[in-house]
């Protein structure tokens, strides 16, 4: 029957039951009917969970501080002046997304740090909830950690607007989610993050822990297709400059590149997932369509080949649809390895706990990708049932979630001892 | 130098200078930087032009009345109890549309009726500004005239919402654009409308007047593509159910049908111009896309063949993109001839004025399409430079606009004499 009083006392047993109860509470913010969450960055649900998480940290002795872009930190300074081991992830979600994506890693970080709160370490501990990792409301994704590491200009980030024209800086100011006194990159000795896999490798191989060794390479484009507004009925077909036709051919081209090149060895993942049509009227040929187009592969040469084909075929689409295709923006990265020392350390902790593990890449981006290269970074995965991701049906079992928490606690203890630091 | 006092007096000379000055005033409502207008139905700009037009009518002795769906009438009852000759078009525009589309026909109708105001006729005169002809904000198009003729249920029409969720009935009530005492279909003896061509036939053939003899046949679909939300990076390509890929293939299919079938004789115009993507996030495969798909042809058999091919190929798209394509709605019409008596009457008036004319179809829908079949209907065109339509660059010359006004006045005079009535 358990002890109800024990479950209701937030300061009580910080083991499995408390973690799972806290996770259930967290999953209530923006909960959807089908078991997911709907809490995009700086939404009302995100603000509420941010406030709840701040109280959770403060109640346990963490010093809660924020930086100017809304990253939320809980500091445990036991060794004055020493750098921090930073550990965390993000609480925001995709629209109608899963409960575990990001939120699991933030809560596991907080519980792991809290477990170590009673002891002194060479390094201090800092838990982080990065702002707007998902990027669905404010582009780009991994937003808060990009500002933290200098990849994104803070002024430009604050001036970013959502599709309704609402500015990040105004939202953060209104909710009181910014502040001073937060650690900066210079204060960080190393970073750790745990996340659900978002794929099926661990499940298919019966493995509990993924030791992430590298990020896939990626090229991401913001494209603008320019046509000419005209009547969908009366305009002669040969006269049309249909921006939506051009955009549709780009969507099909992205899939064709994957179909053609994936058979040659390494996989190539391609996608178009966002599209805005102007004027989007039932009787007017579209004058302009904006869309994103992503290419990802673990093989940099294959990615380069896909990128080359993409560019060469755009010209054909411009001719056939009588449109212009502009590259409004692009960014990308190569295959980025995570430090071997961190992988080895995490492997030893997993072995000590009797948890099965395997080295693997991450296809999805994470805040750890921004930190990696600046400070020694450890990235860990736990299994995700059927690999379902960015979907309300996303799920990780309690046993796997708790195994990950134990692993992260062990990793954090060794990182706090100063086993791996920069330089 | 002209007489400024004359231009400023709204009651003065009702010839060419006044018409053009009034048209310039009308074009100022919702004027865009590039010479077009942006005044969708019940927008602030549409409300202002509606109020201006009501005053224009009232100042000249018209009795201004409205029906429950926001159609605006100006009545000139000189023969108590006699039915009305109805003449008009619509003042609303596409987003960033042309100045002439619809507005020309409404103002020409008002000026033509005003020119005849001093004389008595067998029939009474009624000018009409139909509500929401464009259908860009509230679907379907030709909305007000569809309610007037019974093709659209009034309750359903009032409950229609724009993309922001705003209800037609609430907007009309707030602006006072509804009323009682308006004529109904039973009070109408016949209908006439003049419109810019929205094509290049008149310009290419050096003709001033188009005598519209028929409407192209059309099939219009509202389609919903159902996929499954997942991560654009980590989801294995073979596992994806990408609704946007399915939608893109439908856009390409629509164009392919035209490319394949137009060579066989009659033209086939196809289009997709509106698309809504959910969740429209940069890192989430789309779970649902809604779109419109239109097929139009002057050849009913060709249209039936295109419709058959469309349906047969949807199954292939469902398989290749692993999505379901649902037909959420559809409507259509066959080739609809306009009455020969009206064409003959208009031709005689044009001959009398020395205006070149030709019989031609209309591809675009007009409010006259809704009236046709219920009451004898006369549909007239004037040229449109380069055939530009639903675009800020739309233009008709002053000479053509004034020629059309003279023609409409002559047609209206003969219709008011009772030359063509139902039965």
From TrEMBL, chains A, B:
Cited InterPro entries: Amidase_Cbmase, Bact_exopeptidase_dim_dom, Peptidase_M20
UniProt keyword annotation of ATP-binding present: no
Keywords for the protein's UniProt record, in alphabetical order: Hydrolase
Keyword Plastid: no
Sequence similarity: Belongs to the peptidase M20 family.
Protein name (Swiss-Prot/TrEMBL): M20 family metallo-hydrolase
Species classification: Bacteria, Bacillati, Actinomycetota, Actinomycetes, Pseudonocardiales
